[in-house]
Amino acid sequence: MKKEDDLESPLLPDGKPAPPSPPAAKGCSAYALVCALLASLTSIIYGYNRGVMSGAQKYVQADLGVSDGQLEVLIGATSVYSLVGSLAAGWTCDRAGRRRAVAISAAMFLAGSAVTAAADGYAALMAGQLVAGVACGFGLVVAPVYIAEIAPAGSRGFLSSIPEIAGNSGILLSYIADFALAGLPTGINWRLMIGIGAVPPLFLAAAAVLAMPETPRWLVLHGHPDEARRVLARTSGAADADRRLMEILTSVKNNAGAGAVDSPPPPTSVWREILLRPTPAVRRVMLAIVGLQVFQQACGVAALVLYAPRVFGHAGVTSVLGATVLLGAVKTVAIVVPLFLADRLGRRPMLLASAGGMAASLLVLGLSMSMPASSSWAEATCVAAAASFMAAFSLGFGPVIWMYGSEILPLRLRAQGTGIGTAVNRVMSALVGMTFISMYEAVGMAGSFYIFAAMSAAAWVFVYACLPETKGRSLEEMEELFDNAGADKASSPRAALS
């Protein structure tokens, strides 16, 4: 039992468990749930946009004469474009508000899908993917930030898992659309596959304008404490609203000066505090965020999401689109697990289990690629290992890193810091997406997955050594947690060795 406790929280200050948060009233939790679901529409659209090219790419190539090299650049460039979007989203969230940033994201998703579906050449495809990629960057930032700030502490893990579930649902829907529309004439099928993605943003934009409240912390930061209290009363309960409001007010004043409630920190000071002159706590927070984002993509998930038909075809799988749909279904079903366990087990155990499962699954997947392509064992092992990898990824490294990153940043740095982490994620995703074909041609398909397995094993070490547990803590406690984590690491031989 002691070993299990040590595994879960070796970096907690003084070795004490996180204090439980007061439970929110049932109706208030329902209101927070509705807000989280609306914000998560962004993630459904993002997932659809990311997954649809997996099945559409060969029809795009046949219709428009796109080469393998051009396709590799087209798919990978979307992640580069989303890098721009993620950096711009942090600034937009701070200036315009979290709710308006959601609406802007929806408008760009609509435009990007429409332009890509109507493309008559490679240049037009790149233009459409540019707009859609920027929208993806926005979506990856605004949904986690919005939900982290609107959710009560006791259900933040539950609600923060919803965007990743929504994103996987979007990927699954894109695979189903690819499978269902593949039989239509080339030139029509891929345009419908992509064009369908322009419909949900209409509903998201309307929801953002008409139904979603602004987050209490942004309202306090911009001098609207009365409105913030009204939102808190609906999400945390009227009896708890005053206490929560005072915590937010105190946090803002302590971190940014007495006048900070009436004016947000200027962007230059935010960037300086994150990158140039971070405090030890902020430095540890950013290390955790950037490290998680690097390892999430370095494990090769983008290779399977974007190139699943090629991977299955290499192993001799007969129905590559059917196997791809199965992969999306497993990923979507498995992502439900963190929804119920993140607030019970904690973030660290789920990330550790996820990294270990990914490493083992990728090792088996690499071995399946070494078997003869005509072998039925190779086909079955490949599909099973790929599905196992997606399930392990969805247990932790899919959803948990987003909730973890959005909750550990101080309020004044949350939007911009999340944007930086997302930008790093997009750079890594672009590297994987733009080099996977070249990589497996150079080292073989099996060698590529052995590399991904090694990166997953390194991710396990990183989580164990560097991440404190955040379960049950309010957002206002996080900076102190990372301050104490640093002190513990300096004073503890065991932690220092880690």
TrEMBL record:
Q: How does it sit in the membrane?
A: Multi-pass membrane protein
Alphabetical list of Pfam families matching this protein: Sugar_tr
GO MF, one example: symporter activity
Q: Name one GO cellular component term.
A: membrane
**Which residue stretches belong to region Disordered?**
1-21
Which InterPro entries does the protein's record reference? Answer: MFS_dom (IPR020846), MFS_sugar_transport-like (IPR005828), MFS_trans_sf (IPR036259), Myo-inositol_Transporter (IPR050814), Sugar/inositol_transpt (IPR003663), Sugar_transporter_CS (IPR005829)
Keywords (alphabetical) are: Membrane, Sugar transport, Symport, Transmembrane, Transmembrane helix, Transport
Keyword Signal listed: no
Compartments where located: Membrane
Principal subcellular localisation of the protein:
membrane
TM region(s), chain numbering: 29-48, 101-124, 130-153, 165-184, 190-212, 285-308, 320-342, 349-371, 377-402, 423-443, 449-467
State whether keyword Transmembrane helix applies. Answer: yes
UniProt domain Major facilitator superfamily (MFS) profile: residue ranges? 35-471
The UniProt entry, under SUPFAM superfamilies, shows: MFS general substrate transporter
Give the family from UniProt: Belongs to the major facilitator superfamily. Sugar transporter (TC 2.A.1.1) family.
Name assigned to this protein: Major facilitator superfamily (MFS) profile domain-containing protein
Species source reads Urochloa decumbens
The taxonomy runs: Eukaryota, Viridiplantae, Streptophyta, Embryophyta, Tracheophyta
